[in-house]
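User: Predict the structure for this protein chain, please.
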Amino acid sequence: MKVSHLYQRSHALLFGVCALVALATPMVVIPQEALPTGEEIRERYLEALGGRAALQSPTSSHVTGTFEVPANGIVGDMEMFGAAPNKLFTRMEMPGLGRSSTGFDGEVAWMINSAMGAMLIEGKNLQQLKQQADFYSVLHPEEHIASFEPVARKDFEGKQCYEVKVVTQWDEEYVEYYEVETGLQLGSVRTQESPMGPIEATTIVEVYRKFGPILVPTKIIQRAMGMEQIMTITQIEYDVVADSMFAIPPEIQELLKAEPTDTTSRGS
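Assistant: Here is the predicted structure, written as structure tokens:
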């Protein structure tokens, strides 16, 4: 007997048993717990991180840590630099794969890696990078988010969470998970744009740690394309980043020179 036939017959049998039990059992209506509003979840999350005053105190950050791909035995070093209002630079060094870097100086977004060379970031990928680069995005989510709607209470990675449907200003939809007990964001399921095309990724925040007055996610797991990647943050320094860190590299400047003069449509 084929497995599919066995499954279908077993499913039909179980369904019949369940139906008989349901008919013989008085119906019990279990009241559904009312969900908090999106605004209540946001405010509780801000407080869990340290509060508005703490979050808006620094104007830049320098993050150091490691990046791992356990299945391939890859462990590399990682640095992230961010500055208000919307600058970002990241670089990673991975044995056998070389260095990769991504940057946004508030106007131009770019990427350089050994596999694909230098390229400008545009379209939806640019919109996502702008959201990541916004140094105070958690304090004014309306800049990027059109709606933030709690839809269910469910288990996420073994913890009870509120599932929130997020719709961006550019009509992208994804879900985020906020722990019922602590108010902290524990993860998301989102399609990330990449040079290889859209990739659905599940992100899990496993550990938070305090640096100064701010609680920060320090162990982040991402699962995508059947592979698990782990980012571990070991140190954060505030207000030590020079503006020169976000300068456009020569390779990207050459690409900009080769572009048509009118670039007003970039990122649309």
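The radius of gyration is 23 Å.
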